Records
---
Amino acid sequence: MEVIHMIRYIGKRTILSLITLFIILFILFLMLNFMPGSPFNDTKMSHEQLKILYHEYGLDRPLAERFLIYVKQMLTGNLGVSYSLQTNATVTNMISHTLPISVQIGLQASVVGSLIGIVLGFVAALRKNSFFDSMATGISILGVSVPSFVLALCFSYIFSYKYNLFPLLYSSSEAFRSTILPTLSLCFFTLASIARYSRSEMIEVMEKDYIRLADAKGITRFQLVCRHIIRNAMIPIITVLAPLTVDLMAGSLVIEKAFSIPGMGSLYINAIQANDYNVVIGISFIYSLMFIGTMFFVDLLYGLIDPRIRIAKRGK
Amino acid sequence: MLSKVKKTMELLLFSVIGVSIILSLVACSSSNGEDKINSETLKLQQPTSIDSLDPALSYDTSSTIVVGNVNEGLYTVSPNNKPQLAMAEKVTKKDNGKTLIYTIRKDAKWSNGAPVTASDFVFAWRRVVDPKLASGFSFELSEAQIKNADAIIAGKKDPKTLGVYAEGEKTLVLKLNRPVPFMSSLLSFASFAPINEKFYKAQGKKFSMTSKNLIYNGPYVIKNWKNGDNSITLAKNQNYYNKKNVKVKKIELKLISDTQRAVMAYKNGDVDYAALTGNLVNQNKSSKDFRTDIGAFNWYLMFNSKIKGLDNKDLRKAIAYSIDSKELTQKILKDGSVPAESVVPKGFAYSPTDHKDFADQTNNPYSYNPNLAKKYWNKAKKETNLRSFTLIYGKDEDNMGNVAAYIKSQIEKTLPDLNVNLQTMLKKTRLAKMQNFTYQVALTRWAPDYADPTAILSMYTTNMVSNYGAWSDKTFDSLYNQANTIFVNKSEVRWNALIKAENILMDSATSVPLYQTANAYLLNSKVHNFINHSCGVPLFFKYVYIK
């Protein structure tokens, strides 16, 4: 019975996600249509040439027709070609070339940031008002307030320029080593946010009546923390962590620019500036897909972590 | 509670001090990269990524540099900035310069061993003018006056009718509408490179997408590159006819778009060349590796004459006299830029008789003069009701925010009744607004494509697509046309006609030149013959050596 409920729930969420994606795609199409300027390197092109190019790429057709053609092509995995950034290169190729490195660095930053952040926040909560708590709060404030590009500059100076421990710029021949400094620069914000959030969540949970009851029942402190406090405090943390992770995976323009990483973040910004419509739509679509997919996954994860949510869903 | 806050604040303070110390150390760091250089590899910063390696579609500077060094056309440019025969070993003129016959070098080969033939040029040039490709370089074949180029570009004739033919394997014949004095400079540009038809057809849509989908006839070949990579490596072409004179075996171009990071990479020895912009120019001026060359283009104010009020010459002159370009370059920009004294930039077009710079021979009426500005403004106020205008500029263009703010303050200070509104936008939007004449005044620039004043003056002729000011003057048009027709074989008369045309243009103040950019950069002192060219392909590596 529970499985049927689960399948129905997944099906409902999948349809909702697809509708959301379709709406996002349409809004994007609409917005790009009203953007001034053309997607071509047209400084020295005649009006006739621009006309030919618009016709060649189907940009002279009505918006609705273009949208339908795009959706049809997209279903077959064709996201069109780049008009100016990498003239005539397929967007699918461009994304498949830049996405892996952005996802890798984003995931690394997310894992490092959230693990350290959770540990820092939990220990600070357990040792509330101690020196360690003050230190954790200090790190959190610093992590939130110092922008990643400042950290990137500091890390590069110390670890690359001064001591030559890591490459200053991304190099495919030293792929993993090249990602360490970008990961560290990126993870601080996540680390700080998660540390602050997990500390306050832990403190809140620790003051709940059921924790007092469990404590009164005489279970060990270790069991109390692991079985009751952490489990309950994790749900809101996951809610915050999921969009943070997607944000990191979509690529950070600043970090990619700083370390010359051929990632999706810098490609996205360049595409927006160049009016390269297909690239903008393609990346936005992938970003939305990642975001919606992650939120969907998180929703399912809630059920696994907290039986109360499962029961509530079943009730509905 | 108070002690906790105190502790937190202490921690925060120490952290901020720590970050500040590190940042100041970064700013004060000294050079240590020179020792890493070897005589066989040159590593350069490349500020933008490659947009295309197709000679007909590679528009940005980074792509042009690569395409211009792995391909070679009939001409190249010598270290002293003069066109020099390259794939052609001989040129013969006929019909008073209207027929040009080029003999292709016997030893010219593609990197796959195939000979470079006259047909390779015919195929490549027909492709550039083919409306289906809509190459942004097709106008160059039009400027070269190659027969039927205009009609083909407009879709009225077949590309096969282009006035370029192969007579046998090594003879290329060019039929022109009229002789072109700057032909050799024009032909040294990357878009005139040959393409091997057989190889091109075998690649289909994959042509130029990776280094494997290209063959090369220039001094270098590309190694292991695919679209989107953040670095590109050029290696000496073993089939190049003049390979013994190519000194540097490997060129590595690394994409570093952040200038500060580029300086760090330079000082670290990761690159031997780093371009400088903004404040970094001033900060690095004392370095022994600091170099500066005059840039290829002027920034100027363009007035849309279609707007009532802006068509008033006195108003435009009042604005021109109220801007202090000297102060703008020395106090605002501080990057080596110099005040522009003419519409045609300095250092790229020289008189064919006495080799004087064109820019030095024309009138420069607009040095800063608030009294004259007020005089013209008082005159203009009687003729027009315009009391405010909007100045548009690109937010993604270097320093334009500061330049626009300075211009606004200068005009409003000198001409109190005139109000300047600033509007920022992407460069693409600025261009679109200019092309559609939906702007009032714009901060813009124009880079010449060949070493002749007409490369700039042409855009002010009536009905020219790039005449964004919609300005028109019959005498100017007539002088321009004469320079390109009846005076074409009389170099001195032609030169003087162009000077007169420029003086008319300057007097009209339809565009007010502000400053000429500079190329400031750090270059390892062991690198020699590294010359920035003011038009066409900016850098040729075949002359560079490291010692």
---
Amino acid sequence: MHTLTLASMRSGLENGEFSSVELCQHFIDRIKKQNESLNAFVSITEEQAIAAARAADESRASGNVTGALHGLPIAHKDIFCTEGVRTTCGSRMLEAFVPPYNATVVEKLSAAGAICLGKTNMDEFAMGSSNENSYFGAVRNPWDTDRVPGGSSGGSAAAVGGRLVPACTGTDTGGSIRQPAAFCGITGLKPTYGRVSRYGMIAFASSLDQGGPMATSAEDCAWLLNEMAGFDERDSTSIERDKDDYVSTLVNSLDGVTIGLPKQYFDAGLDASIASLLQQAIAELEKLGAKFVDIDLENQHLSVPAYYIVAPAECSSNLARFDGVRYGHRCEDPKDLEDLYKRSRAEGFGREVKRRILVGTYALSAGYYDAYYLKAQKIRSLISQDFSQAFESVDFILGPTTPSPAFKVGEKTGDPLEMYLNDIYTIPANLAGLPGISVPCGEVGGLPVGMQLVGNYFEEARLLNVAHQYQMVTDWHTRIPG
Amino acid sequence: MQWETVIGLEIHAQLATQSKIFSASSTQYGAEPNTQANAVDLGMPGVLPVLNREAVRMAVKFALATNAEIGRHNVFSRKNYFYPDLPKGYQISQMSLPIVGNGVVSVELEDGVVKEVGLTRAHLEEDAGKSVHEDFHDATGVDLNRAGTPLLEIVSEPDMRSAKEAVAYAKKIHSIVRYIEICDGNMQEGSFRCDANVSIRPAGEARLGTRSEIKNVNSFRFLERAINFEVERQIDILESGGQVVQETRLYDADKDETRSMRSKEEANDYRYFPDPDLLPVQIEEELIESIRKTLPELPDARRARFMSALELSEYDAGVMTSDRYTADYFEAVVKKSGASAKLACSWISGELFSRLNKDGLELNASPVDADRFSQLVERVHDNTISGKIAKEVLDKMWSGADTADQVIEKEGLRQISDSSEIEKMIDDVIAANPDQVAEYKSGKDKLLAYFVGQVMKASRGKANPGELNKLLQEKLKG
């Protein structure tokens, strides 16, 4: 049952092949069995999930189907606030935090009938590329538990990759959906900035954060995005624009589609085995009618430095609210106010979070603001311009999602810079606010490799269409770990 | 040495919106602690601010009322600092692109001179909560009801040269924000707060001296005293060879002094940057025009009209336009009573204001509204009652719900103008005072007042004084 796609689970439920309770229980059993080795879940909400599944079965029996995801199991990254269910954001700071409200994404998926089995592990406050920064321990890659699943949505990627749940929500600030999707052999979409509401999604870097779906196929991502997307008056940066039907356009032909290959992505720096897998994918897409042209994104090399100014700057301010005063971790017996602040934050935050708060605070300080923050914003504009120019002649941009397959646990923890470079291909889309998707396109040494497609603003439907057409003629996305 | 005082004011006017600037919580004053603070006001994880459009409209209204520039491209920024009453660890404010730019305000000084004071800017921001030190042993409580209340921070140029000028300017701004109904102006409740930047320099010097910023001034009287104290303090320092330190000082009304709160060196680096949770706000011409249509007649224009059309003196016109309630009340009374503007004004500024003062009431809480008051003025105007009786009638109206006519009727206070009735009373008085009559007739003219008094007493004050005088003189001659 766990190898089915959401779409076929849906028809299975409709045809009475199995009940929602059976389906959810099956996945919960898998979670319980495998979570010890994968550590993909921070919380398992079995009781609520089974109760909700039972209610879903009953309402289906009486002819009421709530929505497109009626009775289907999913899980939420532990960055999305869930009313009455602990939401930790991977941090000791929020180890015991139970929100009195739901994130808009949680509300919408629940209204569509989806059943949440639990909350997935993540890098603390979504800061990391390996999921080794969680207060609740590192997540392991289901393909090789000596390796990382990627981050920061590593729990979601490992859970879907290991088929502990058919689909998950994730968030992507610099690649946090796409990079772990690539490492775990699944499909992950970062929508256009503003397409999915950020309300109730704990902020890391507000101008870059975007929630999106992670599933085993582009089609399942489309089903999820259909429910997640849309304007939300509670998020001023969400965009007032009708959402598309992401499912109905999946079958469109790729005839006449033009795809750009940035020379910066295919230069000598790219791992040869990944380059050859990408060439095979390009050949498949050509067979489907796509045309390829070389393009130039000349400011790409500035993405990582610009990102590591903007994101820490915003995080230094966003995380100021965690002060031990109203909620979250508070140190024992504070002597005075300053002691309360210092110890609560020193104890509540991990190393990487502290590092980024310090970097960001420095970048925004008087006398440095122009040299760092303002300059980084200018670079951001340049990168956006490069993309806009490219999209005048191409429909999509194709390249690798990551420079290498999943690396070993502990391999890069000593060198933050090397860790940061893992996001070199994914960060540009965040800086420009563009949608991007990672699709499995092969294996290197038994480890999955992802191909990334970036589209123009609000082109999620066409991105999913290309990915789906590719998945119709390839089977990389159907492979599951040994 | 001759010293010149230089003052600039930063006024925080709380905007009279129903809900907070970035959340749907109520802004009502005086609720139980933390009952008007939702997830956004508490700075809970993941929640986001949504701008209250009404606050923007009110700020634009202020710009129009002061002929100030309107910032068409508005950016909200974060001012970062830690404090327990600041839930997010930053205050959302405006830094480089405020909603109101340069403007000018005309201020009438006591000597009648009109002084132009420049407005540097005014920007929107959210208020912080309150730290509560009472009721907690060895701890501090936090009340976040006020957190997120919309403020318009109005910054002046350093154009004031004395505490009196600063107060006159502050009163003018107070009057404008109340006139255009964007702020209730209640200083006790903190709806209108002034910070004063004060420095001194040798007379004739062009460069500004080092300033101190005085905070926590919650009345016009304290503003004047705090500035005067601060000027004296700075003169003492400079004349004894010292240097003024740039710092923030708190005014202590009980001790009537300012004291240091923090120096420039201790000041925070607020690390302002544009708030990524809020998109820039564009102010379109259409919005400005729709707001312009809602602008009432402003105090300056109204004062001029009261002088030209209603023939009030400059002083009276100033008093009658000191705030919008007074002006509205006055105009209603003039219109309904048919009395002269001068009569209406003297009754309002005299009898009405003194009673309000005595009871510690604002005009909008007056027990006698404009409608009832206008009937009283009308009865004075048409000689139904004398001014003296009118005061009695007003006293009765003050404590009851009767109209002036009802009081006059019930108490039988109608003025007696019927000459036969008055003659009868005069005859009685003459008959009862033969000695005084004789004295009067022998040339002691001053006794006339005695007879007037006696007849008035007999009429219980109701005799028409003009008629009484005329008849009495005729009778005494005869």
